[in-house]
Amino acid sequence: QLNLVESGGGLVQPGGSLRLACAAPGATLDSFAFGWFRQAPGKQLEELYCLNGIGVPITHVDSVKGRFFVSRDMANGTVYLHMYSLKPEDTAVYFCAAGPERSYIYTCPNAKSDFESWGQGTQVTVSS
């Protein structure tokens, strides 16, 4: 399993932007699929994006399409979630996760339970 460390959360006004980082020290990023999730108060954990081993981002969440994007820095072993035009309903704890090594090079896990490594989460609050 990987040791994932998230950072970059905080308080932002509606319409603002944040970049969350998920550091995976020592990991070869293209050997893993990474996921970004969020959990708002009183709601279930929601998968926002998956980035497979070859670097293809996949999302099924209409509310973040065109506003949230993922990228990775292979040299620094870090995956990013770029969030723009933030709304109060984006307020949540955001988590990154990784699938097993070499298991999801061309695909993404089908279920949250298929991600085996999880970060500690970072709070994002969108409020004026």
Description:
The chain has 128 residues and is mainly β. Helix content is 0%, strand content 41%. It contains no helices and 11 strands. It has strands at residues 5-7, 10-12, 18-23, 34-39, 46-51, 57-58, 68-73, 78-83, 92-98, 117-118, 122-126. Strands 2, 4, 5, 6, 9, 10 and 11 form a 7-stranded mixed β-sheet that branches. A 4-stranded antiparallel β-sheet has the order 1-3-8-7, with no helix packed on it. Strand 4 and strand 5 form a beta hairpin.
Structural classification: mainly beta
Strand content: 35-45%
Proportion of helical residues: under 10%
First-last Cα distance? 39 Å
User: What is the 3D shape?
Assistant: globular
Low-confidence stretches: none
Short description:
The protein has 128 residues and is an all-beta fold. The protein has strands at 5-7, 10-12, 18-23, 34-39, 46-51, 57-58, 68-73, 78-83, 92-98, 117-118, 122-126.
